[in-house]
Amino acid sequence: MIRSSGHLCSLAAVLLLAALSYLPSHTCAAPEGSGTLDADTTLSDAPSGPGQEHEYSPPARTPAKPRARRIGESQSYFVFATIADSHLRDGGAPDIRYLKAMDRCRDVLSAYVRDINAHVPPVDFAVHLGDLTDLGATREFEMAREIMDSLSCPLYPVLGNHDNFKSDRKAGWLGFARRDSATYAFDIEGFHFVVIDCTLNPYQPPYVNCDSTLRVWVAENLSANSSKPTIVLSHYNMWQRHWNAMFDTTLHYAEYRGMPEMRGVLENAGNVVAVINGHVHANRVERHNGIYYVDIGATLVGPPSIRYFYVYPDRIDVDFEYLSDQSLYNHITDLCDECCCCFSPEEVCGFIDGTEADKRFAIPLGLGPAAGAADAESLASPGSLALHIRSGVPGGVHASVFSDLTGLVDISLHDVLGRRLDRLGLWKNEAVLEVDLDKSLERIHELPAGVYFLRVSLRGVAHTEKLVLFK
Predict the structure, then answer these.
(1) Which of 15, 97, 148, 387 is the one with CA 20 to 30 A from 111?
(2) Which fold has domain 38-56+64-364?
(3) Is the peptide bond before 202 cis (omega within 30 degrees of 0)?
């Protein structure tokens, strides 16, 4: 293999890889039908309304109610695991362009299932974020059923684009998932989860479309569950990924139709705390407009890992563990040396793996900064306000207001419709104003569990953050 040490050659190689990424895998024949997309393609298999929601309950296994358990010194509600892009195929060689360990795909997914089953504390449910299979062929879904049915916890699957290559209008995936729709919702211990499917039917590589029918359904579902903190599960990334032209929703907007509008639906709902997706084959996390967007790496692309979400009353702690099977781990990771576009083979594996901040972080349910007060203070530039909310036991809510301004601070609590529920005025003469809201706002103890907004204003400057109350 020849590697160029010049930046120009490296850039050319990256552009070549981006161009190649539009092609299906070398043994994958794209389905017929590549006509022009309408402005809004109808989602034929989406439920007609929020009432059509279905729980996954395989006959051989009864979903157990999540158990509260002690992790460290805090009490968690439940734990769930996420994996993505296993690309099961019956035989085949590694796909060097995508660095997939296709020759060991079945062994790898089985190893992931073993790790999830053995996790301590026990995992309450698992999520596969799509591209479970490589071609959507019948034999691939049979393999998937054999492997995934050995999970010791319920599975909530997401349909990926590869799952619909040869899946007869998603019938193969729907049969595997035991569902009548690839768009559905479910509840766990007061939390709401929405699974969305933006795959065209039949799939037309590389087009993606979150059409108006899907957006209306999601908006209605979120509105019907407005009192519950909500996590959205999607195969596709909803924000651009400039490091790969195939996933850049800005550069190739026509291929990601409806994504900006879908993001608007999620942001306007007021109760969405995170979106978790696969597809991009790398670990990343970004925060946009109050929502955390979490990319989950592919099982077949190294270094392979599982992402675990520990849900607490006031936050979601995100952690990860590498695949415990050392032989498979080495086999997958060694494919990084085959990267023909990298200035250094270590760079591509490091990029796929993500930074420490991409792999271990917290999602606060008040949607303030994930760390401590120092991080919130750093957000307050001269003349601005920053607000950090910490909510713990029922009724225990604390707010920190950061600003170099002094004067009378107006603090008001609002519902999701913008109606003011309570109001408080406090004098601020230092950099930080600490407020115990459960002691200062009389109505906070009367409010039902749900999503609210806390607004602070000082000398014409205002800041608003979401607040999730638990009872």
Answers:
(1) 97
(2) Purple Acid Phosphatase; chain A, domain 2 (3.60.21)
(3) yes
